[in-house]
């Protein structure tokens, strides 16, 4: 067994690494094998004896694969590792607590608490200084306040993270086709081992690093590695040779097999994903919420600072009095220690205001609403891959959808066949010349990515491939008596050009063994293939020249089929002289072809598509169809689905070709993109370009697709939705939500739940801001006028956290309603807090402020109660006002706030339980909350003041419509990032 040497030379010394092969594979050194592929080192590959030599060293049979038993798999994993990646360490709950404590507001409060606690301990001793006194603004109380709030926030984020990790683990478990023990089988991507022979087809994701064995026209998108979007051809027969395949790249064309040489952390991808990186991409809702909480924090900090300045001025000017009515500050007569204590007592009042700046309930409300919606969406046949996708869907303003498999069933069937200018259904297939039928056999049977197999019972044929391929093969077998086995024996394939989404056609170069001739067969979009033809066959097998008049006739035939919503496919061929073929298999010009025939395939629309499109339009969401089909088919299907109005002409700009859109100047694209409803003959790049333009126009874009050609647009869109049954694995990886039943109506369901999340969050924001505005105003007025704060830190924790949590529960569980779909989408730039919300919350906040200030200054005198009882009465009225107010916050605009509330049992239970807990706090938790017991009269007064919220809310909603221009805050405009495209 020979050792391998790695030499590293630096400025100071030479380091020689001795690498030993594994005993079970003595001819292979993993580190060198890894570098062969990573560095595309052909010389090193030749030293191993090429792909065959490597396969021998890895004990792999290139035709039958590895043995694949348990012992073989175990040896390979031991020698070369498993196909898994190290991920960033999972955050525990303590990590999220530290993250929450690093917030600026929390740091300010904690800094005060630490100093205050030190002074309290020095002044009163350790036991008394650490005692949590709800009537004193001591450091201990502040510590408890901050830690309770941050703990709740940390738990919420921790649970979100756990759910995201679980979803990621599920999505990474992709099945892969491999050859083991002579048979093809599916194994999980994580179970791939070095030496495996992997079968690759269009749309597949390469599961590991490896080397090309054989295949046809294998093109791979390496953009995940190199950022280059042009597909790379992988082959051994061309110059220069490029047999190298990299993990996580995508097969965009062709098929083949690869020998796995590196897995997991030894792959090129393993170097990049040493630590998983969270994109931290802000959704429109998160961006708006971050801006809102930032604004609230700034306002509260400003008020706290202003109160601080006023109180310090009062103190040092001698206007601050002690309990005996004497000035607390007497110039030089006051000791430094007394000044220090007084200053920190003054700081305590604004610190309680800062508690308002810690948004305790908002993350809870958002998480509860998202979790509830995601759970319900699963029962409605939609699997959410990212929690943020649900909220983003609620902001969607434009939906770009594919046609085949999305709007239609993708269950094709040949219904029409034209040969020359004759419809064969009328004459019968027996009227067609045998020579033409033979050419059709070659053009259909050899130029296909599908296959024909006999069923297990031997009584019928089974077809595989795309829906189009299966439909054409089924028709050829049943109508043209196609014999696939005999065809393969009579014809030799020289070169295959797999279907190309840009050219909209596929081709095959084949040798007819019986006639010893070489023919090029082309199949693809009818008008594109027709443009390459100079002649055509008639029914008798005679070749006729395709002149201008003939082209007009064929154009009319194609348009007639398309008008009937048929997908039109053309077949053409030309005989290639031997000397022309010798110039190079890929250099044969695709022109001067002879048209063999046209077939029309029916792909009916999915049930419920038209109703779903109408629902989107009713909700103010634009629906655009972007398809690779010809313009006539696209227009017909769009009209049938309701995307286009009947008789809407193309001159209006609603229907364009992908090439036309691509050739617009950037200014023209930005000007016309809003008006486009249908884009036909669109390439993947055209779809991507449209999504980018729409996002630049401030649209929130959702893309619906099912194929690999949709991947660039799915990744670029704000939210990608995939038809899960038809969808390819690559497309699934790039999607945010997977529609499990492939129903377009389920997309409308996702939109309804997204709108519901946004509305629930808006309702809670309205409710929380009402509380924030009221408590902020009361704290400010009372602090400035008396030098004291009416609410302690403990009381604010109860009001601002516990009450808000119950509000989050109550407001986050409502189901989607018709009213939510009647309003236009919020989009990217509209204000989250509407003027209607400002009207509702300011009216309630002003009422609460007026009532509580009256109680603060006149409550003791009017109700003949002590100061402590009056403070408890103020707290009780504030809490009950929020509980009564939540009924009107439950409906943002409906005047009848109680409509349907008797059906929402959970809402009523939550409110009832919260009021009951408030009763317990007031009556039985004096030592903890610092409250005094209230009698029946005082409870009646509290309920009376709180119940006035109902008539106020009802009257305010009768105010005439408010202007749409944003009030107080400017529209939010989150930054838009784009995926680079060539």
Q: Could you explain how this protein is built, in words?
A:
By secondary structure, this protein is of the alpha+beta class. It is built from 36 helices and 28 strands. Helix 21 runs parallel beside helix 28 (744-786) and helix 31 packs antiparallel against helix 36 (949-956). The protein is elongated. The two termini are 49 Å apart.
Topology record:
Blueprint lengths: L3 E6 L4 E6 L10 H9 L3 H6 L2 H8 L12 H11 L12 H9 L2 H27 L8 H33 L3 E6 L2 E6 L8 E5 L7 E13 L1 H4 L5 E2 L10 E2 L4 E13 L5 H5 L11 H33 L19 H19 L7 H18 L2 E3 L2 H7 L4 E4 L11 E7 L2 E2 H4 L6 H12 L5 E4 L6 E4 L2 H13 L4 H7 E10 L4 E8 L4 E9 H5 L2 E5 L5 E3 L2 H16 L2 E11 L1 H5 L10 E10 L6 H10 L3 E5 L4 H11 L13 E3 H6 L2 H7 L5 E3 L3 H13 L4 E5 L5 H6 L2 E5 L5 H5 L3 E3 L4 H43 L6 H19 L6 H5 L12 H29 L3 H23 L15 H20 L1 H4 L6 H12 L1 H8 L26
Parallel strand pairs: 11-23, 11-26, 19-22, 23-25, 24-25, 26-27, 27-28
Antiparallel strand pairs: 1-2, 3-4, 3-5, 5-9, 6-7, 6-8, 6-9, 10-28, 12-13, 12-22, 14-15, 16-17, 17-18, 18-21, 19-20, 21-22
Report the radius of gyration as a whole number of Å: 36 Å
**Number of H- or I-type helical stretches:** 36
Question: What is the overall shape?
Answer: elongated
Instruction: Please estimate the helix content.
Output: 40-55%
Low-confidence stretches: 1-18, 274-280, 583-587, 969-973, 977-982
Largest sheet, in brief, is:
9 strands, mixed
Mean pLDDT: 78
Q: Give the strand content.
A: 15-25%
How many strand units?
28
Distance between the termini: 49 Å
The SS-based structural class is alpha+beta
